[in-house]
Every structure is written in C-alpha cells, then in structure tokens.
Amino acid sequence: MTLNTQREKEPLRRRGSTPIPPTHFYQHSSYLEQPRPQRSHPALGQSASYHPGDKSLHYRAHWSSDSDDDSQSDSDCVYRVVLLGDHGVGKTSLTGIFAGITEKDEQPGEDTYERTLTVDGEKTTLIVMDTWENDKLVHSSQDECLKVGSAYVIVYSVTDRSTFDSAAELRITLRRARQAENLPIILVGNKSDLVRSREVAVEEGRACAVVFDCKFIETSASLQHNVTELFEGVVRQIRLRRDGSEAIQRRRSIYKRKESLTQKARRFLDRLVARKNQRMAVKVRSKSCHDLAVL
Ligand SMILES: Nc1nc2c(ncn2[C@@H]2O[C@H](COP(=O)(O)OP(=O)(O)OP(=O)(O)O)[C@@H](O)[C@H]2O)c(=O)[nH]1
C-alpha cells in the first residue's frame, strides 16, 4: 500500500487532516470520564470509544492499509504518539505526511493531528503530537510531552551526527521519565534520501536501537519513503504490548491458581537458563529491531 493511493481512494476523508485545536481531544466523552480531563489520555491498551454520530469527532481522518474494510466495527482505540528530536530533523514533515497535509493546506501553528488507521484489519486512532520543544528552558512543556505519550518516535537526521547523539540522550531521558513502563519507542533516521551528505550509517542507527531497546527505521519525508511503515509500525508495537500484557495477566492469574511445586522449580530453572542466554537475546534483538511487526 502507498499513502498516495489511499488518499485517492478516500477523497472525502481528507478533511480529517484538519489539525486538532489543542483543546479538542480533551473534550471527547471518554476523556471527560477521567479525573483530569484537560491532560488525561487513555492508558496504553485502553480504548476511547467512537460514536458515529458525534460531531465533535469531525477531525478524524482515515488511513487504511487494507483495501476493503468497511465491515470494520466503528469502535477503535486511541493512542497518543509524541515525536521527539532536534530542530530540523523532519518531525513536522513526518507529522504532515501522517496527517495527509500538503504545504498548500498547511495551517501554521498546528502541531497535533488525529487519524484513524486500519492496520492488519483493525482500526486504531493515533493522535500524533509534534509539540516537542528542544529549548531546555521550556521544562514544563518537555515534561508534559514525556508524560502523555502512549508511544514515542525519536527522530534524528542521518545527515547530522549531533542529532543522532541527541536522539540517544532523549531515549535516556524518556527511560528516566517513564521507568516502569514498557513503551513502544521507535528510533527514526530521517532524510535517507540525502545520500551524499549522510553522516550516520544505517548500521549505527540499528546498533543504537539494540542498545536502547527500541525499534528502528530509516525514512525520507521528502520521498515519503517508509513513512506509512513507520506509523503502521507504531500501531503494531502498541498492539503487541497491549495484547502481550493482557496475555501475561491472564497467564499469571491461571498460574496463581494452579502452579504446583514442580512447576515452580521449572520456572526457576527457566529463569537461570534465560540469564545465560542473554547474549543470544541481544543477537536476536539486533536481527529484529528493524522489524516493526514484532516485539
Ligand atoms: N531532503 C530531505 N529534507 C527533509 C526531510 N524531512 C524534512 N526535510 C526538510 O528539513 C527541514 C526541517 O524539517 P522539519 O519537518 O521542519 O523539521 P522539524 O524537526 O519539525 O524542525 P523543528 O520544527 O525546528 O523542530 C525542512 O526544510 C524540510 O523540508 C527528508 O526526509 N529529506
């Protein structure tokens, strides 16, 4: 699937590329149920329900990876995705492609867009936020960005090594801010079209992703290369964690009821073996860090 094809197929839905006024998505009924509606958002894996007749949802757009999906249920999940990265690495350009806006349509000052994607036959709505301020003086805004995301896209430019270094620092900052959470994080090397001025090799990006335990992809916003893959990958990473944590909880509750002494001993031995296999795990991760469809 290419993004361009989809836009041609669904002309009416392009109005959803309209940016969301900052207050808009806080007014959604599901958010109002939260204790602090102005700043709350659905937790990872939770769904903000979609009411077809609700006029407040007219900013939604649709981006489908499947050809015929009208049979889909209207209920979908809503997740916030925050883009982080230095000035000029291409955050706004990537967000613009996600939102389906062209320079002609662009409305200055808007930086948050909501769009519904159908990925692997399931609808998911992403609220993509290009609100990161690099200025270290704006602590409160940075803190907010680090708090609200259900997933993060850390962007650097392959033509500027200093932005790559900043990306690694941002990964550390994010880890500190959201320690206990297994967040989907995707490291993005943008401007891959600028071959002659490349300063960061693909292998370096991949190695960094392995060290920092995140996913990796190179994109070109200018050529719209891998941008669809990036946002669909975000959706898949969110789902893998959502489904994984549900399965783990189910398994834990069954275990608690049924676990015998033999099973406990086996689990202990498994953990020992797993520790020995840590090196192997790093190798496996380095093979899979560019595959956004697996954990
Ligand atoms: N060649 C090339 N240029 C790009 C690409 N992505 C963005 N640019 C250009 O890089 C410049 C900066 O892009 P932005 O999208 O504004 O970058 P940003 O990260 O949002 O920058 P700030 O808003 O300052 O934080 C613009 O001139 C873009 O046209 C790309 O993939 N390839």
UniProtKB/TrEMBL annotation:
Feature: compositional bias, Basic and acidic residues: 1-13
GO (cellular component) term, any one: plasma membrane
InterPro entries in UniProt: P-loop_NTPase, RGK, RGK_GTP-binding_reg, Small_GTP-bd, Small_GTPase
Domain of life according to the entry: Eukaryota
Pfam families named in the record: Ras
Keywords: Calmodulin-binding, GTP-binding, Nucleotide-binding, Phosphoprotein
SUPFAM superfamilies: P-loop containing nucleoside triphosphate hydrolases (SSF52540)
Residue ranges, annotated region (Disordered): 1-74
GO molecular function, one term: calcium channel regulator activity
Family according to the record: Belongs to the small GTPase superfamily. RGK family.
Listed PANTHER family: GTP-BINDING PROTEIN REM 1 (PTHR45775:SF2), RAD, GEM/KIR FAMILY MEMBER 2, ISOFORM C (PTHR45775)
Subunit structure: Interacts with Calmodulin.
Protein name from the UniProt record: GTP-binding protein
Source species: Seriola lalandi dorsalis
